[in-house]
Amino acid sequence: MIIMAVNSGGSSIKYELFSIEEEKEQSLSRGSVKRLYRPDSFWEGEKEGIKSRKEVPDLDHEKGLRLIIDILTQEGPLHSIQEIEAVGIKLINGGAEVTQTSFIDSGVVQALQDLSGVTSVHNPPSLLAIEMFQKILPQTPLVGVFETTFHLSIPLPYRTYGLPWELSQKYGLKKLGFHGNSHRYIAERIASLTSRAQKVISCHLGSGCSVCAIKEGRSLDISSGFTPQSGTIMSTRPGDFDPQIITYLEEKANFSPQEINRILTRESGLLGISGLSGEMWELEELSQKGEERAKLAVEVFVYQVKKYIGAFVALLNGLDSLVFTGGIGENDSFIREKVGNNLDYLGIKIDREKNQEIKGKEGKISSSTSPVEVWVIPTNEELMVARETAKIVKERRK
């Protein structure tokens, strides 16, 4: 079965084409269009180990998707667009209405629209991708693979907010959890790498971040909540903070809900503290040059990740393996070392030399005397989207 996995973001579209037959999975082609809605937009991709790039100015979501389809059919591996048997789209937040992998219908679309106000970074671009694929491949099954599915195993006391019960029930206000495709991949991958995989903490660190406690391959708790906003500080999102600040700002600064939403999604986090950048690599460089607010942003990030690790070790009653993944987690040895510092009382000891050798590849970075194994594992969300898509399509065919 030929499956196309798609991750449609606000400024980019990532994709990967898979052949999935029984136990055999093969990546046929992958790539992305980046800098959408800008004159310097481009496509880059990889097929059979060969990388390519095309500069295509002024791409938007529709033009970007059509370009991807054209490249796949004109340059291979496809001869015809009809060879795609299903499209899996990574979806973030359908609220309490849609939490599991589902064929995309009007109900799924409505759920995404209803949550667009509080998931404005993710849901609108996903809706654009759905609309475009419905035009481009009207007869092909579209499957929504939700980030929340992996976290359905979180116990009720861990996902319940201290809000009026009637409000929570009426509006579905509870912890849903995100980065589920990434954390599920880590749960499966770590189990294949080591026997130390019963109690795992997965740190997905990138422009968006979450820390997940995994027990026996299932999500036990997650730092994110009803939306991807909560948990650790992120590139432009604040993570956890006192919610009364919102009403205080509405009263004192006369901010509208739209202005508050803009601040929380695009002007906060690392960018908000530093006033300079939401990119970790830039903040590290600026810190070395003496920019105090950049240094502070990095320190806040490290502190918050460490705090969740400590909390989840307590929840798991111990720890077998700590895993770093995501753009920062996979590539930034400095952040990994800072997070691991002074956690030896929890059995976490990172080997500095091993840590510095690992960038964008898989490997164990704990010292030989560390009771807890520490791993870097590049995530593969596209593979998880393709697997879930193939599974639900096969079930329908049966």
Main traits of this protein?
398 residues; alpha/beta; Nucleotidyltransferase, domain 5; 2 domains; 8-stranded mixed sheet; 6-stranded mixed sheet; 15 helices; 14 strands
CATH fold-level name of the largest domain: Nucleotidyltransferase, domain 5
User: Structural class, please?
Assistant: alpha/beta
Strand content: 15-25%
Shape type: globular
Strand order of the largest sheet: 5-4-3-2-1-6-8-7
Secondary-structure element order, N to C:
EEEEEHEEHHEHHHEEEHHHHHEHHHEEH
Q: How many beta-strand segments?
A: 14
Mean pLDDT: 94
Describe it.
This protein has helices at residues 61-74, 106-114, 123-136, 156-159, 165-171, 180-193, 244-252, 257-266, 269-274, 280-288, 292-316, 326-331, 333-340, 352-357, 381-397; strands at 2-8, 12-21, 24-34, 42-47, 50-55, 86-91, 102-103, 142-146, 199-205, 209-215, 218-222, 321-325, 363-364, 373-376. It has 398 residues and is of the alpha/beta class. It has 2 domains: 2-146, Nucleotidyltransferase, domain 5 (2-Layer Sandwich), CATH 3.30.420.40; 180-376, 2-Layer Sandwich (Nucleotidyltransferase, domain 5). It has an 8-stranded mixed beta sheet, sandwiched between helices. A 6-stranded mixed beta sheet has the order 11-10-9-12-14-13, sandwiched between helices. Helix 1 (61-74) packs across helix 3, helix 6 (180-193) crosses helix 15 (381-397) and helix 11 packs across helix 13 (333-340). The radius of gyration is 21 Å and the shape is globular.
